[in-house]
Specification:
This protein is of the alpha+beta class. The protein has 3 helices and 2 strands, in the order ααββα. It has a two-stranded antiparallel sheet with strand order 1-2. A hairpin with a 2-residue loop joins β1 and β2.
Amino acid sequence: KDEILLSLIDKALAHNNDIMVAKLSMDQLELTYKQAKLQLLPTLDLAVGANETTFVIHTLHRGRFIQILLGSLFVVGIGASYSHIGEIPKIIALLV
């Protein structure tokens, strides 16, 4: 083996912009592929919320400002959704 020749080839490859661009393009394609695979995994979304509404009347009584509480409404909501995009091709195949 010619060590000097191998060293020169390594230096040439290390400073070749076309090869660097090609390697970066391959890295980007690999990341895009991994991201696409992750989108096929099932997802589960959960949401919890609460809201309170108070009903009040403001009025004047004998020259004084008063506030009359009519009541309160308290609402709690819980939601969940599940999706699995991997099932979509199967459903489309069944419809065709």
